Amino acid sequence: MPTIQTVTILPSLPERLAPLLTLARNLWWTWTPRAIHLFQDMDRELWERCGHNPVALLGSIEQPRLEALERDKIFLARMNEVLEELDRYLNFQTWYGTASEGRAQGRIAYFSAEFGLHESLPFYSGGLGILAGDHMKSASDLGLPMVGVGLLYKHGYFQQYLNPDGWQLETYPLNEFDNMPLTLVRDEAGEPLTVSVEILGREVKARIWSLVVGRVPIYLLDTDVPTNTLADRQITSFLYGGSLETRLQQEMILGIGGFRALRALDLCHTVCHMNEGHSAFMAVERIRCLVEEQKLDFDEALEVVRATNIFTTHTPVPAGIDRFPPELMKRYFAGMVKQLGIGMDDFLALGRMNPADPAEPFCMAVLAIKTASQTNGVSKLHAEVSRRMWAEIWPRIPRHETPITHVTNGVHTLGWLSSEMARLYERYLGSRWIDEPANHAVWERVDLIPDFELWRSRERLREWLIAFARRRLVQQLKAKGAPGYQLDQAEEVLDPEALTIGFARRFATYKRANLIFRDPERLAAILNHKDRPVQIVFAGKAHPKDMEGKELIHLVIQMANRPEFRNRLVFIENYDIEVARNLVQGVDVWLNTPRRPNEASGTSGMKVVANGGLNLSILDGWWVEGYQGDNGWAIGAGEEYDDHNYQDDVESRLLYELLENTVVPMFYTRNSQNIPVEWVATIRNSIKSIAPFFNTNRMVEEYANSAYLPKIDTWHNLEKEQWREAKEICTWKKAVQQKWSGVSITDVQLPMEGTPKVGDRLPIRAAVEMDGLSPEEVRVEAYIGRLDAEGNIPEGHALPLLYTGERSERGHLYQGHLLCLSSGRIGLTLRCYPYRKGLSHKFELGLLTWWDVGEAAE
Ligand SMILES: *Cc1c(COP(=O)(O)O)cnc(C)c1O
């Protein structure tokens, strides 16, 4: 084979057009319509061919065209306006600037295995990546001092195409880093800056690339470095590809390498956020640095790291979580464990629900939970599921009190909004909706948009979607060598005036793409109604190894080929951000039929809202919080079933009934001006109730208020006093662990005479023996709730008792009052747990002792 030297040739832009490169290299343009139009107008055809990638566009545009643009005064004026807009964006006073005034400054590092930012950057696979991308965009809008950390994959996530029989095939295009808005980070000598991670005795090097999202940089690591072995160069080849061992290596690069990259870049890290467990080795490296440089012992370093780490879990099914066999971990982490100054068993315990079980695999989510002081799910329901899923980590704590909270997901409104709707909002809402998408009062103003204008925009958006679908179908058919008459048919597929439903997502089985096909005849009758036609646009990829998912796609294609569905059902191949954007902007109804409670949040339904689309969904994920009765439709009432077949029967029937009796009639009931008045009112309700809450600006503010800001303070306080507080907590925890078996509730006094009535206040007194701990270190609570059949209190709530300052011979005395709020039979008991200020939640030690008469009598 000949020796091939690669040379990168940079575009030569005329000087006056050079600022376009600045624009192209900041992803701010992706959510700024005027910037998009600017690139688009340079050469529309080339823009499409480049996959909407302005860096590639500027690199391949013909010189004569550039020279013409350089002399085009109007183009130059538009360019300068956009540049000024960018300048304003980067310099205006932000939410964070105000919120953090007078506080210590810090930096938040956000670790994620994927970032879904734009279709021209195909290193995302689905919801998790899109959420990370939207998180970055909102962090930029709000002015958070955030940096993203991830991996740069040599191959994009796969592109999907279907063979003529409707089976999914995959290709993995090579990402051309030089044609992306990436900058290779170099050291002072101009050499690529690298970090290295020890993998099985080899120092594997990774380069660092930067990507700019408004004000927020993202650093991406890539191991395709010439000095690495061939196998190591391929660690970052594929997103979620390769063997379990590749996965482990990737996660070591992401977590350990990613953290080292931040340090090499001199970006002091004060708070770290793990988006899913893939990056949890970051916590281990963080601990190692403190052990090595600050001379803390492992437990002390863990205190510091935990106090300033947060973890967001996204996966409600155990099978979706990374788990590594202990043998594999021992091979890969022998060196690291030595540096941490602990034994291998102690290390493996960090990734186990039951630390004492040597067979339990090492779980990345458990590692993340144990090294973070806030763990949250991505919707209220998902947090409930997560509390059940991870309850074993706190075996003594009632399941519903497992310390996992929720921060409900959102979407970056501007990134998903059509320019059509953006213009309407500018006219009627003013410009504040752009800077304050989370302000309810601003969205209330959609009431001012006249019905006919809102409806006309909806009609136009649907037409554009249909034009897009037809273009894509023609392309798909051409690629398969389809005969000309089929191309002609595709040019006319779908009806621009018919009620249009979108169904697009990963074809995972729990999402049940087949639910609507349960009764094909009934569906055909709905779609082919003479006066009230309905059509469905499908899109979605199945994971390459998921045969069941591929069967689902095959089923949809077979259905679409049936004569009774032709023209009413289409499948758009290669679901990505571009397809998603077109769909969520154009559809009238977004259909979502997951098997509850498997949809952690789901975000695509949120994307349709500001575009005037309506949700029709199972009450799962975010829709449990979003649905209000008058702002879309719920299939069922949030039931969960053991018999899946029966569930599918029931829920498909509910879906047909909703379509037949409610959705379709409402869409086609028009007033004298042909406007569906009730439908338009529902759109308004949907926008007003959903848009201000289910966006990432609100979500990022929540993360900032609940975690980022307080943890930045925590870091500074810890650092300022040379980690004194962490050391003290550590010493205290050890002492409490030793003494806790001597703590017991020895005497409880409840007034038992008579039958209390609603509104009565019942005094409660308790004595607690505490083996040398002081009353300030022991919190006592009454625990009250309805009794189940076995006489337990499954979901009680806690009522704190106060220390009286007195003691009897049975122990320190505490008291409180129970206010009887409702009638019925309730159970009541007492419990106590250790307390000290500075703990992140009351069960941080996992210790809890219940009132137990049997025990007290011993
Ligand atoms: C929004 C989005 C998702 C997330 O889909 P959900 O089914 O709502 O979780 C996945 N893929 C793409 C391309 C998206 O735009």
Automatic annotation (TrEMBL):
Q: Fetch the InterPro entries from UniProt.
A: Agluc_phsphrylas, Glyco_trans_35, Glycogen/Maltodextrin_Phosph, Glycogen_phosphorylase_DUF3417
Tell me the ranges covered by the DUF3417 domain, including all copies: 13-121
Lyase listed as a keyword = no
Q: Which GO terms describe its molecular function?
A: glycogen phosphorylase activity; pyridoxal phosphate binding
Q: Tell me which domain of life the UniProt entry assigns to the organism this sequence originates from.
A: Bacteria
Q: Which one Pfam family would you cite for this protein?
A: Phosphorylase
Q: Which residues carry this modification: N6-(pyridoxal phosphate)lysine?
A: 607
Homology family: Belongs to the glycogen phosphorylase family.
What protein does this entry describe?
Glycosyltransferase family 1 protein
